[in-house]
Amino acid sequence: MAKYITAHPFAHNIKGLDKIYDKISFVSTQNYADGYLKLMREFKRFTLRSLKEDIDEIIQKQSRENAYNPAETSTITLIGALQRKLFVAGAPLSVNFGRVAFLAGQESIQGFEDGRISAFDYKGEQINWWHKNLHFIYENGTPQCFDDYNSSIIDVRIEKKKWTHHAYK
C-alpha cells in the first residue's frame, strides 16, 4: 500500500503507515458528523506529535518527494474527501482511501502543471530546480499524452469517445 499512496512525514515506514490506518478504520461510513469528530481528534494528536519532531528532519523527509511542504503549512481537508464521488457510505475502507489517494496524486500533478512545485527546492528556497529543457518537454509533451490516452477511451453506453482535447483545457 505504501507504494501507491501519499504518506505524511510521520509515517516513517510501512508499519507506521499501517498504524495510522488502524486508528482511522474505526470511522463510521454511515454517520459523517461522528466520523468528522473522530478524524479531528486524530488530526489534533498528529499536530501535537509533529510539534515534538525536529523541523529539519521533517523537511528532509519531504525532500525525497521533490516538493517543498513544511509541516507548518500542511493542511488536512476532511470535507472534500467526504464528497459523494470520493466517499461512498458502506463501501470498503480500501475503496474510499484509494479514491482519496487518487485525489492526492491528481493534486500533486496539478502542482507541477502550474509551476508551483518546480519553483522551490527542498529547503524552500525559490530556485527552479528543473533542467531548462525539462519544463519545455513537460509543458509540450504532457498535454499531448493526456489527449492521446483520453481520446482513445470509448464510452460503451453511447459508443462514442468520452474525452476530447477541450475536455481538460
From TrEMBL:
Gene3D superfamilies: Collagenase (Catalytic Domain) (3.40.390.10), Neutral endopeptidase , domain2 (1.10.1380.10). One of its GO terms (biological process) is proteolysis. Residues 66-150 form the Peptidase M13 C-terminal domain. GO terms for molecular function: metalloendopeptidase activity. It comes from the Eukaryota. Signal peptide: none annotated. This is Membrane metallo-endopeptidase-like 1.
